[in-house]
Design a protein that fits this description.
By secondary structure, the protein is mainly α. It is built from 18 helices and no strands.
């Protein structure tokens, strides 16, 4: 076994121990609307059919995650679902590392760098033990984007998009990126392309038809049936440009007054308080917050290099990013609540970030040592900080 395989196996082993430990201790009632997701599973168990959106807060969701986890729920309850989540996360890390290595075939360390980048990302880790379809949304969108970049117009690609849609409506943000991938690959077999489009519409028709027949809308959302009780925020220009969260080192409240700060700190507001005690001056939290800035810059450098070195990957990645960010901004304007509420539109961001980091490592050798040091430091801090203690959220 060479050193890279050893390091890769070590990273995956550490993540496996970390995640199985947390899944065992994490209280499933904590999480992003965890009770609503559990109610969806209980609804399926009791009624033996899919719910309608107006019947409960999370029941508007498309059913893939719930149908997939239902056997585990029936067999071992929410704890079995949490353990299944861990298995999926490990499979995700392995698949992402493999696919990224196909995009950078000349970079021997591509798989290792991509795996370490994702494994060290706090937002990708704290979601895993939660009962929620958010993690599966990240996995399916990330895998779809990578497949677009490698083999864009295969039937498997279309089926993957369908699966992503059946997990969460936000998979529709993949549409423009898929079209760009077809154009870049100079697809001339339009009959096949039209056939794939027909297959997508045919397979997703049951969801659209159900929604329209009941609500005269193709995509109803929870807030239409169960309005938020919190007061609305005024999202003016200042909201979208406010940078006070940096000078104030605001890890918790930026989502109430800043679009950028709320997006950046989403995982502190939604995840940090769900896994460990809230200690605003915690040194590890501050360390992770600070590390995010230089790592973000390295990822941006990587995408700048990709613009010339691999315009195919650059165009697909940036098309998705612009589409997802546009949907995110539109949702903030349409439903002006705390900005982090809409962050699920950015589910593909981890893979965009990971591709940028891998590209920077590959095309800018001078950054390699500092990148590895920063990632290992982030990895160590993340594990030690989000290691759930027995005296905190113990599942009852």
């Amino acid at each position: 076994m060479n050193i890279q395989k050893f390091l890769l196996a070590s990273i995956l082993s550490c993540i496996a121990i970390f995640q199985f430990h947390n899944a065992r201790l994490f209280n499933p009632l904590y999480g992003l609307d965890a009770q609503g997701h559990i109610e969806y599973l209980e609804y399926l168990k009791t009624n033996k059919h899919l719910p309608l959106p107006h019947e409960g807060w999370e029941l508007y969701q498309t059913p893939l995650y719930y149908l997939d986890t239902l056997p585990a729920y029936l067999y071992g309850g929410v704890k079995a679902v949490q353990l299944q989540n861990v298995v999926y996360y490990l499979a995700y890390l392995i698949l992402i590392g493999y696919l990224v290595s196909k995009i950078f075939p000349k970079e021997k360390s591509a798989r290792l760098v991509a795996t370490l980048t994702l494994a060290a990302l706090p937002v990708a880790n704290y979601l895993v033990p939660m009962i929620s379809n958010e993690s599966l949304n990240v996995y399916l969108i990330s895998l779809s984007l990578l497949i677009f970049m490698i083999k864009p117009y295969q039937l498997a690609t279309v089926l993957l998009i369908v699966l992503a849609f059946y997990n969460k409506y936000t998979a529709l943000t993949l549409g423009p990126a898929y079209l760009v991938s077809l154009v870049l690959n100079k697809a001339k077999n339009w009959s096949k392309i039209l056939l794939y489009g027909f297959i997508f519409l045919l397979l997703t028709l049951p969801i659209f038809w159900r929604n329209y027949s009941h609500y005269q809308r193709l995509l109803p959302i929870a807030s239409e049936f169960f309005p938020y009780q919190t007061p609305k925020k005024v999202h003016d220009l200042k909201f979208f440009t406010n940078m006070q969260w940096v000078s104030q080192v605001d890890l918790f409240r930026a989502h109430t007054y800043s679009f950028i700060g709320g997006t950046w700190n989403t995982f502190w507001h939604d995840g940090y308080q769900l896994t460990v005690p809230v200690v605003e001056t915690h040194k590890k939290a501050l360390g992770l917050w600070i590390l995010g800035f230089p790592l973000f810059i390295l990822s941006v450098v990587g995408w700048i290099k990709l613009r010339k070195s691999d315009p195919h990957v650059f165009a697909i990645g940036m098309t998705y990013l612009v589409t997802a960010l546009g949907a995110y901004i539109y949702y903030n304007l349409r439903l002006p609540y705390d900005s982090e509420v809409k962050a699920f539109f950015m589910s593909g961001l981890p893979i965009i970030y990971t591709l940028g980091m891998t590209a920077c490592y590959h095309y800018v050798p001078k950054t390699r040592k500092i990148m590895v040091i920063l990632l290992l430091l982030e990895f160590s801090l993340m594990i030690s900080y989000f290691w759930i203690q027995p005296w905190w959220h113990i599942a009852k």
